[in-house]
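Here is the promised in-class demo. Please do not try to memorize the tokens; focus on the logic of going from shape to residues.
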């Protein structure tokens, strides 16, 4: 399978948000974006940018769906924002219908995606965020499949050095 990678250093929450907004603007229907990184690394910040880029109305405030597990928002493409922080087993995910959500022609962004690596679709954009210090984050993007690959290509042109 096609695989393409990009490293970006973000120096502020605004920069991470901007990367998200770029992804949201260019992401195509049916995409799954899998986020991983410790608590406070910036997964929700990135997801908020994705929502903005997808045209989710600004008065809808995007927060970690830590308790609801899934929130969804209207936009150019419908956005499902998933947070698996409190999930303990895969069975809970099938209960929520996450596998069906990811098959829809919408966009799914998953925080703590490593918890459900077994049921993630083969085609996905994987983003890992590592904390460097108070303000800097190392963002690693890995694309699996043509769709994610194209998105990374676009990011390379926009943010790559
Ligand atoms: N470069 C950066 N990118 C993203 N967030 C940053 C950055 N630098 C500092 N932060 C801070 O880190 C925190 C990230 O929080 P959040 O996005 O909720 O993380 P997570 O969803 O991974 O738990 C916020 O308080 C944000 O202001
Ligand atoms: Mg979060």
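The designed amino acids, position by position:
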């Amino acid at each position: 399978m096609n695989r393409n990678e990009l490293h970006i250093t973000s120096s502020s929450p605004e920069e991470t948000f901007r990367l998200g907004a770029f992804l949201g603007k260019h992401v195509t229907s049916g995409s799954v974006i899998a986020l991983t990184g410790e608590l406070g690394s910036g997964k929700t910040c990135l997801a908020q940018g994705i929502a903005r880029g997808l045209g989710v109305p600004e008065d809808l405030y995007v927060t970690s769906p830590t308790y609801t597990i899934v929130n969804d928002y209207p936009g150019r493409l419908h956005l499902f924002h998933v947070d698996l922080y409190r999930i303990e087993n895969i069975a809970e995910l099938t209960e929520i219908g996450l596998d069906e959500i990811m098959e829809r022609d919408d966009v799914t962004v998953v925080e703590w995606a490593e918890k459900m690596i077994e049921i993630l679709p083969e085609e996905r954009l994987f983003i890992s965020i590592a904390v460097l210090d108070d303000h800097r984050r190392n963002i690693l993007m890995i694309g699996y499949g043509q769709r994610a690959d194209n998105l990374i290509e676009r990011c390379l042109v926009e943010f790559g050095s």
